[in-house]
Design brief:
Strand order of the largest sheet of chain A: 3-2-1-4-5-6
CATH class of the largest domain in chain A: Alpha Beta
Number of domains of chain A: 2
Number of helices of chain A: 12
Strand content of chain A: 5-15%
Oligomer: homodimer
């Protein structure tokens, strides 16, 4: 049982974990800290947290576990603020979408990745933001990636594992580099495509008519373009190399496809679509 | 009341219209024709059609209305086969995803777009194919675009309008060119992006791991990559110019975005994502 869990940034992810751990009876007290008073107050009113603290020192005082749920661009500043106030035995973890940048921020602030700081990333979310959008079931049957290193404290790692398992998730460990590559492919690239598609269409002259005739496929395809702009700004700047590499691969493939359309090369088109359909059907059979 | 409706190609769209018109009590008899005997037999067993005909002359004999539901690449050959057997007063319509190519095929076969041939396209579908996937509610509250021209027979147009309205759809008229541009933007381009994304990822070395860590956003984003390859092959070849133009616009925007990521231009990224989110939220408020 965790006596005090402090959540730094009570948004969709932090809020949903708080709700899940409450349902599981895993914490005695959940304290929330946030940069702006209104959303924090709202999280308190919704019963997501037990106590709201606007002072970060007061928030982490006596906390066994500190979960950082801020956008990755704010990570370094938050760690800097936390550093003097963390309890010596406190276990720290985060939910940032990019792990290389979080480890770099920790190294910059602490000199090393502290053994009791276990970087993490739940592969779950919706296009909505904020504690209002949080729900206890968000992580059920979803995967959480942890990226500890050789110096990581086994007890701290076990505790963070257990935390996510209590929220219903499957916990997997991988290297920071592999995480950032995998996420660039499966999450960051698709978001770039969805944002760019919607923006391209919105800039067309007859954009009202265009959107009017969009069907269900378009609605699903573009759902992720409703995601939080600040969060995605941070992700782009914090997983730049892996994302740019995936963007280049995608653009190369798209250019080849456009070339086949231009040349009327039906065989190449059919091959591409069949290969993609087979891969997508196979993925869906395993994971949908 | 239509006495005899003949559906040429009883797939998802033709089959769903047959089911909807049956529920509405709009037809006395629904006859189906298909190139392959098994799927046609299956449509008969499922009660989608009343009678299966493998001979196209027998299928259209006595039909008041002929609905063509074959992929657009098969349109010209099907019209050629139909031509000698159509009743003089028969109303013909189609559900092809590209309209310029359908009108061109009609002109090639008949010399003109026959006044009683009303080209149409329901903006509805799923990633599934075949009469097995058909359901009567597919067109409810969806839009159907008709692209008649100045020579079109008003009675034929009124009949096709009524047909779709009886299936629960809203009917809209527009020019062939505008249809093909709008659909290139809202449907054909997104399908190219989904097919290309899945294919790009499937070609990565660690593709099993990649797909394993894909989350819900990826599942929704790639759903349309499970669509019928042959149908999309046909669409690409039959709406080539409008699709290539949209692909170029998209690629230009994606290159600008990649440039902003590479340059670390956070302001440009934030602006793009905010504009896209606003457009997508606005679209969703009106149509989701």
């Amino acid at each position: 049982m965790i006596k005090r869990l402090t959540i730094i940034g009570v948004g969709l992810i932090g809020g949903s974990l708080a709700r899940a751990l409450r349902v599981a009876g895993a914490c005695e007290e959940i304290v929330g800290w946030g940069r702006s008073p209104e959303p924090l107050q709202r999280a308190l009113e919704l019963g997501v947290i037990d106590r709201a603290e606007s002072d970060i020192a007061a928030a982490v005082k006596g906390a066994d576990v500190v979960l950082i749920g801020v956008p990755v661009g704010a990570m370094e500043a938050v760690l800097q603020q936390l550093k003097p106030h963390l309890e010596p035995q406190a276990v720290v973890t985060d939910v940032g979408s990019t792990k290389g940048s979080v480890v770099a921020a920790a190294r910059k602030v602490f000199g090393i990745l502290p053994p009791r700081f276990i970087p993490g990333h739940p592969i779950a979310g919706t296009e909505k933001s904020g504690a209002e959008a949080s729900f206890a079931e968000l992580f059920r049957n979803r995967r959480v990636i942890l990226t500890p290193d050789e110096e990581s404290d086994p007890d701290a790692l076990a505790l963070v594992r257990q935390l996510w398992q209590q929220a219903g998730a499957e916990v997997i460990e991988m290297s920071v580099e592999h995480h950032d590559e995998v996420l660039a492919a499966t999450s960051h690239l698709p978001h770039m495509l969805a944002f760019t598609l919607v923006d391209t269409l919105a800039r067309l002259e007859d954009h009202d008519d265009i959107f009017r005739f969009a069907a269900g496929g378009f609605r699903d395809f573009t759902r992720i373009a409703s995601s939080d702009p600040q969060m995605w700004h941070d992700i782009c700047l914090n997983n730049r190399d892996a994302l740019l590499q995936m963007l280049r691969r995608f653009t190369d493939e798209l250019n080849i496809l456009a070339g086949a359309i231009e040349a009327g090369d039906g065989e190449a088109l059919l091959e591409t679509f069949e290969r993609a359909k087979a891969a997508r059907d196979d993925y869906c059979e395993k994971s949908c």
